[in-house]
Amino acid sequence: MNETELLRLFNEVMKVAKPISTDGTFPKSLQDEFQNLDIDSLDFLLLGVYMGEIYGIPEETMKEVKLNVKTVQDFFNFLNEHKTRDLPPIDDVLKEIQ
Questions:
Q1: Which residue has the higher pLDDT, 18 or 58?
Q2: pLDDT digits over 30-84, tens only?
Q3: Contact status, residue 39 vs residue 69, Cβ threshold 8 Å
Q4: Which of 15, 18, 27, 43 has a beta carbon 3.0–4.6 Å from 39's, enabling a disulfide?
């Protein structure tokens, strides 16, 4: 996936994980840092649950993600490193989570 598709996936999953956003701060770049986004620890946990499911990553492994990421790119690097399946086209993935 290219950067645009990754950001689309991230932002759409965040809309499901955090249906009520206080200010709608979603990443515009893979280099955006989580500390600058409107994502608290519960939001991050739910994001991890959904993304772990999408990438086929066991829950135990996803528990490590918070310790290993600073940016959105770091998050996707973690997902790609631990994934157990290839992703279908992004539109198919987004249909599954909605």
A1: 58
A2: 999 998 888 888 889 999 999 999 999 999 999 888 888 999 999 999 999 999 9
A3: no
A4: 43
How far apart CA 93 and CA 36 sit, in angstroms, is 26
Closest CA to 50 of 2, 1, 98: 98
Q: Where are the domains of the chain?
A: 3-17+32-97
Rounded Cα distance between 40 and 56, Å, is 24
DSSP code of 97? H
Q: Count CB neighbours of 13 within 10 A.
A: 22
Give, in words, the CATH class of 3-17+32-97: mainly alpha
